[in-house]
Design brief:
Helix content is 27%, strand content 28%. It has two helices and five strands. Strand 2 and strand 3 form a beta hairpin.
Length: 88
């Protein structure tokens, strides 16, 4: 389970420090056991982010089963995809 408040806290960190491999690595350490994946937003076509911010979007991961999948359910979420957005 990932609480909405926790997601907002993580977003504030990213908005203040900037998005990079190092920042996501620091999030992995700070917010264990949440799994973090970092990619480009266009790597997730036809999916709707759970939250949108300036420069990145959040998607939730459900990792309870054998295969990972995206979810919109905070109660089943075990991880976060931080997807960087480049302006068109």
């Amino acid at each position: 389970m990932i609480e909405k408040d926790k997601l907002e806290e993580i977003a504030k960190t990213l908005l203040s420090t900037g998005l990079s491999d190092d920042t996501v690595s620091a999030l992995r350490q700070q917010y264990q056991p949440i799994h973090f994946t970092y990619c480009m937003d266009d790597d997730l076509p036809n999916n709707t982010p759970i939250q949108e911010y300036d420069g990145f979007n959040f998607y939730l991961i459900d990792g309870r089963e054998h295969c990972l999948c995206l979810t919109n359910d905070y109660n089943t979420a075990t991880g976060i995809v931080v997807a960087e957005v480049y302006p068109d």
